[in-house]
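Could someone model iron/sulfur cluster with this protein?
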Amino acid sequence: MVKSADERVDLLQGGPTLKTVHVKTFGCQMNVHDSQRIQELLATSHGLRSVERPEEADLVVLNTCHVREKAEEKLFSELGRIRKMHKGSSFIMAVGGCVGQAEGTHIFRRAPYVDIVFGPQNFQRLPELLDRIVQGEKHLTDSDFAVEEKFEILDSLPTATEIVAPVTVQEGCDRFCTFCVVPHTRGREFSRSVEEITKEVENHLSSGAGEILLLGQNVNAYHGLDQDGVTHDLALLIRRLITLSGVDRLRFVTSHPVDMNDDLVEVFGEFEQLCPYMHLPVQSGSDATLTAMKRGHTIDAYLTWIDRLRAARPDIAIASDFIVGFPGETEDDFQRTLELVHRVQYDHAYSFKYSPRSGTEAAALADDIPEEVKAERLSRLQEVINHYQYAHNKKRVGKVESVLVEGVDKRFKGRLTGRTPTFRSVYFDGPESWVGRRVDVMITEGKPNSLRGRTASTLNTFSPGEQFS
Ligand code: SAH
Ligand code: SF4
Ligand code: F3S
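Reply:
Sure, complex below.
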């Protein structure tokens, strides 16, 4: 259990009073979710109120990403910037997330004004570390992989109301792709129990969530136990959640092609509630590069899964991640990546220049693709990816989409924003009271990155829990 703010009063008497926290997030969905939980944790333990501006915060937490060098450099420039903003006034600075895990005490050397360093699997210990800093200790760090303890503590926190409620089902990764630092920063694979996940999903639904987002670094490697000791893979977990909890919208990210199975394809065909969206990163279109990356599958095998997913659910949106300029990638290898994009015609894809990460297997290889070649390949790839994304968006025009309204568009008064089941952002006019509801929206325009639409009086809005007619 987390000690509450009241229980801490005696402990902290005489130390500086902390009232506010600012958490800044870098990196993936898991980090976004962790940041949310860190705020909930500190609200319970120290009564800290989250503020939007770092200069107003007594505690600043940077929740970091280590996946590419650029992301790491961003951290150090951000640390300096935040320090300047405080203009010499005292505040506590904490660095968490994957750089915290990977770099540990090195961070104190480069930025001695940082007080606390922690990792993604031990942020539940932040309240204790904070107390010790308040009592005058310096440079504290915790880098244990304490994932079970983490979930135990987090489960005792109140459930925050979220329209799209992220639920971690699996953490860490055992795949060790040769370029990737994640198994080193998030640790080995850990699946939560079916019971814990179900409870969390039910709590979110009763507090008004309109969509459940199952999260895992490698979510389709999920293999949790139920109360009877029966192992559930991701497909079985999805069946259980949809039948037990009555979820209206369920989505999961991110999957690895090697951990696909027949049942996961089948559930897409079976349940309308399972959003037709699959983020299945391939990284490269060349078998030689996939082998060098130790991805464990061929392009043929990957395409077979894509075809089967589309056969089971014709409206499914397919997304991917790509890396260009991996050591030894030839122009011919790169051409195969372009061919793959033409073949699959992705709805959406992220693409990156290869960045060597210390501790990974590929870091021992020469980073032999010149920077300008990486940049040129990236821009050619992005051109093709963007072409298909735009084409898919334009094809939605004239269709009615069920949009879960996630908020108001801050740039335009009266405009709402939400997502389709295929994860496309839609902007349309409507009252703020629709936030959190599902609304039928007629798509009027397909933009490169989003859709525009309008509601008509004949169209429906649904509150979470109501059935589609
Ligand atoms: N678990 C997910 C991805 C985790 S990292 C998966 O297996 O697909 C997110 C993305 O960052 C990866 O898919 C990859 O495209 C990119 N990435 C990871 N390591 C990288 C590196 N060293 N250089 C460039 N991009 C990298
Ligand atoms: Fe990284 Fe590969 Fe694991 Fe994804 S599957 S997190 S790319 S090691
Ligand atoms: Fe980055 Fe860690 Fe996520 S390295 S991508 S924040 S798991």
